[in-house]
Amino acid sequence: MFARLYWGELRKQTSKSVMITLLIITAVLLLLTAVLFDSVNDLIDSVADDIPPEEGIEPIRDSYLTVYTPQSVEQQLTIYRALLDGAEREKEELGFDYYRNPDAVYHYKGQIAMLEYIRDNELYGVELAYASGLGVSTGARFTAETFVTTVGTILLLIVIIYAAIVAGGTFADEFKRGTVKMLFIRPSGRGTIVTAKLVSALTHSIAAYTVMFALTAAVGYAVFPASGAQTIYSFNNSAFTVSSSSNILGIMFATNLIEVLTYAVIAFAAGALTRNKVFGIVAPIILIEVVGMIISMFGLGRFFITDAADWSQFVGVSNLPYGGANFFISLPVWIVWTAALTVSAYLAVINRDAA
Questions:
Q1: Residue 64: its pLDDT value, please?
Q2: Residue ranges per domain, the chain?
Q3: Is 136 helix (H, G, I), strand (E, B) or coil?
Q4: What long-range pairs does 79-83 form, CB within 8 A, spacing at least 24?
């Protein structure tokens, strides 16, 4: 019974016109950004080629690749430890106001941990990049990896909008068309119906993001060279490792997918609670752009779903989450919020009449 409901909901939620429109928008944006970024690469190359090598400007192409030595690591450790001391003093002076701003303490601790990892593993004499929540910085020129992470972040909003359209209208459309009465008299039960609708909406969200990501990666690697730089990765300022810069794409896919699914749940709950498709669609955007920003201004951002859903801020070095945030705070906050929204959607449907 569930399988039939699920496949029926998949077909019902599929809108060819919306899918085609979003694919066209994605394709146009990919084409325009690819042309723009390729032009930037040509400009950088032409400038670098016109400058005599003896003036030392050639490294502009790989300005974020660093070769460490024992001396440079110790010098940077001294600098960052001093900066950390200053940030910790500022934290004490500001008190609760500290949590309204990006966390400088977290940032400097991450830099120190990375340098200690380099020192302890004697990663000297090799060119290294580092991963952050924004991708891998491997130079002024765009590589396939930097194209995918940069443009993928821009296109993420399109996928969130699509997920909100699908999830936000799944119950609102039933009430608007008056078909909800027929839906509720099925022997499968309302709980099963809610589950089928939610799972199908999440399936649409996963499919949309996967297609968008695949298109972005295909364009990125077709137009730009792969960097392949040895890159330092970390998780929550610990668990350091070194691997290829291309691995950032897998990390980006996973963290962005969590964000897409979170906002699909928000839209699903908003649509079920209000029976209003428009509110279901705009609710995630309101939370991202308005509510989350306001709550963060009051120093409570780390306890809100907007911040908790962004796991990318804890993957890599040099990130600046809001004061006091770390993954092991965000994870339970995310679980509580998504569980509460999901339960509220179930209760709104199960306990409400079909009128």
A1: 62
A2: 2-350
A3: strand
A4: 80/108, 80/111, 80/112, 80/115, 81/112, 83/108
